[in-house]
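Quick entry between incubations.
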Amino acid sequence: MLNPIYMETVVKQLPVNAEGYLLDATLWTPEWANEVARSYGITLTDKHFDVLNWLRKKQAEGVALTIRKVGASGIVDIKQFYELFPGGPLKVSSKIAGIPKPVSCI
Amino acid sequence: MNKNLIIIGAGTAGTMMANKLHHELRNEPWHITLIDRDNTHYYQPGFLFIPFGIYKPEDVVRPRTDFIPEGVRFVMDEVQTIDGEQNLVRLQSGDVLTYDMLIIATGVEIAPLETPGLKGELWYKDIFDFYTYDGAVRLAEKLQNWEGGTLVINLAETQIKCPVAPLEFAFLSDAYFTEKGMRDKVKIKYVTPLSGAFTKPKATEMLNKLMDEKHIEVVPDFYLSNVDTQKKAIVSYDGKEVPFDLLITIPVNKGDGVIERSGLGDEDGLNFVPTDKFNLQSKKFKNVFVIGDTTNLPASKAGSVAHFEAEVLTENVLSFIHGRELTATFDGHANCFIETGFGKATLIDFNYTTEPLPGKFPLPVVGPMDLLKPTLTNHMGKLAFRWVYWHMLLTGKHLPVPTHMSMAGKIQDKKIEPVTEHA
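Done. Structure below.
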């Protein structure tokens, strides 16, 4: 379930799916990303945006994203990725980056 | 002038391509060479059944040469490097083969050494894989005498061969220990880097209850860093620990070493080859095509995917040879049985853009298979598939399943409603 802050600040701005992921990646803005991050208690820095922009670029190229790929991106290693986006780093960063949730085939 | 087509890898994908192209090019001046390092072909879907005694080891092994048509040259050697600039393949024996067209079908394998502590003192004592013949056979011996405890099934990575097999292993474990009368002595934990055992909306809705019904605890968002062999626990990158008595690991999967040695792999170092997701051409060399588990496609690494890709690739190879545009496109189609234990299985059918949906397969109303629903018929289908694999699939015979995913029989009762306050 989406928390009340998320409903209040993020959902009102752009259409998202039931889990709060942006429906159309092209509508993404840095301001919207800041709102999503805030709902997770994260204040976005330039380093965060470097990761978000890399994720958005790779997603547009059709790459299947993994935590390991982010760790090999040259921007952050896996430990740093966890520090920037605690919990489930790829799940959280994908949401903030406005790209679909990482999924398996089922 | 005769031309050379080389296929590297005589697994599911490479063997299918050798058979299909041998037939299609029978009146053309093309020589086909198939290369592999040994002459043992494993029926890999059968590995899952070996630990539980459902299949015997000998059920899943045949010589590769049984499925290679006369007229295709089989070279048993290790490929050292592929030189895409010079169009040649260097072999360990010192031989150098030149090609006009190359198909890479080298597959993936488990790479337990990627995770510290995994392949150490506990390997094949308290830690087992079931994605290799040896692992499955050793695990069968272990399970026979195991007295119970915490059984942890852990996926080290998300890009793995047959992503549903770990789930099937969990379900079959529940059935195995129940039938042995010792289910109360075994705690089963399913530890995944993803947000849950199921991640697609319809599959979650239809199948998530299976985990509760079978008393399988799901530990989500766990990305494996290392194994603490002293504590007998798996440890995540954010410091979480899950202790185990018996660990069933699905280690990181990597493509063959030849991809790395040849500089053909993706940037994450896992040796998957960048490939056009629709026409299956290598992104680096126009006369190189890639099929099966070794591609970097955002599709499942599964035999059914290789099968549907083989139909598309056969068409595109013929187009390439004749200088035509590559018009055949792969849609990401996969079709997988999922064993749920006690003689039942469910079935999923999906592609790049359509998630697994409920309904009937392959025909609307009559099925006979049910999608996203555990049934006896699906289980019979899965068991019958071994015969189909040896006798029809590998040798390139036509199977009554469409190459492109069909919506016929699928039920989309409602679209996933977006949460939005916009009109």
